[in-house]
Amino acid sequence: MNSLRVSRLAALAVVGVVLLSSCAANEMQDGGGAESLSGELNGSGASSQGSASDVWIAAFQTANPRVTINYSPDGSGAGRKAFISGGVAYAGSDSSLSSEELAGDFAACIPGTKAIDIPVYISPIALIFNIEGVAALKLDPAAIAGIFSGTITMWSDPAITALNPDAELPHAPITAVHRSDDSGTTKNFTDYLARTAPEVWDAPAADTFPYTGGEAAQGTSGVVGAVTNGHNTIGYADASRAGGLGVASLKVGDSYVDYSAAAAAQVVTGSPLVDGRSANDIAIALDRTTTDPTHYPLVLVSYLIVCQEYANPETGALVKAYAKYVASPAGQAEAAKSAGAAPLSAELSAKVATVIESIR
User: Fold this and answer.
1) In what helix (H) or strand (E) does residue 326 lie, and over which residues does it extend?
2) Chain centroid, CA 92 distance in Å
3) Directed axis angle between helix 184-196 and helix 141-149, to 10°?
4) For residues 196 and 291, is the Cβ–Cβ distance under 8 A?
5) Model pTM greater than 0.90?
6) Quick one: which of 107, 20, 119 has its CA closest to 311?
7) Which domains does the chain have, with CATH numbers?
């Protein structure tokens, strides 16, 4: 990302936060305003969106005091299932709707209409670790695939030590922690490995972790807790939750890259949309195999999944207003501030705004 773009993003974040704190109602006037919006909105889904959702909801409810929004971070898979069945009005998901899901019906939508994917949260996935005596760790896709598939079981394995000649890696078993629940973070993680290390990772991308070894933990907080409280552990989680844990550098091309919001955003900017979707479905086919060292390909795009047309018009109006705020400069600045997310690019932001306007 060039310096001009970084400066513009920084300025945009500052302006968004100032406007939000000083006149939140004005920021959301296009979404209906405090006088016209009322009701309750329930959502469920990605735990990666948890921190951002907390600040989005707080700001939106402050500007619209007659609106109550509840978001349950049950995991992307659970959120999509709840939305499809009509249990919630929207889902947060770190993976877009599958072709199989889109072929079915959506209980909250007008019969014959479909749901759409709206990207609102871009974040790196961090490889978090807790290895006694090790502060820095370098890994390539093949080593990561071997660790999480169970073919590499010791930290002293030559496949790891060759990448880390200056590290004092222990001759100790690896505890690799993965999600026990259906997770969009897992789908992004397994998609990355399936594309970059297919000779080692022989399973397709999936919300459900495909191998039986290692340690399973519920949700992002469960993975972070297991890595933090274990010994010689490694796991994958939304980077906003890495805290004080070690984070591995990822080999991209001939370089080792540390995660950053800017490097994650670069991957999204350079990736095409998924083929075969409706004009208003903004599902992104992430380029995992980039060799550009300014890119960090282990990234997730988290979506709001909503009806194109709601069976209940009042629900549609609330979802539309909330989505407008989430995707607005102020909403994106709050996600960057609270969760380290990358704001949507100008081009993607414009497309998202157009699609949100079409929600009924």
Assistant:
1) helix 313-327
2) 9
3) 120
4) no
5) no
6) 107
7) 3-120+306-357 (3.40.190.10), 124-263 (3.40.190.10)
